[in-house]
Specification:
Helix 4 runs antiparallel to helix 5. The chain is built from 5 helices and no strands. The longest helix is centred in the last third of the chain and has 16 residues. The N and C termini lie far apart (29 Å). The chain is 68% helix and 0% strand. By secondary structure, it is mainly α. It has one domain.
């Protein structure tokens, strides 16, 4: 969040929305996976929106912090698909 605040403040609302979406699952991927099987509400739209904003903010940048932010966003977007769907 610190990198976003300093380098891509427009992405903060998307980051917070994605964060809030996952909060009820106490960082337990199994709880999230089971909940999406029972109730068709996932965090995918929130995570993908964040990924788009981070990609926009890091485009063309080569500094380590920007690359870390982009990699973390890609990882989160990939993880949303591990729910068994």
């Amino acid at each position: 969040m610190y990198w976003l605040k300093a380098n891509a403040p427009d992405a903060l609302p998307d980051a917070l929305q994605a964060w809030y979406c996952f909060q009820p699952y106490d960082e337990d991927p199994h709880r999230y996976a089971w909940s999406t099987r029972l109730v068709p509400r996932s965090c995918e739209p929130d995570v993908l929106s964040l990924l788009v904003e981070v990609r926009r903010a890091t485009a063309g940048r080569t500094d380590e912090e920007a690359l870390d932010a982009a990699e973390n966003a890609e990882f989160a977007a990939g993880a949303k698909g591990t729910t068994g769907s």
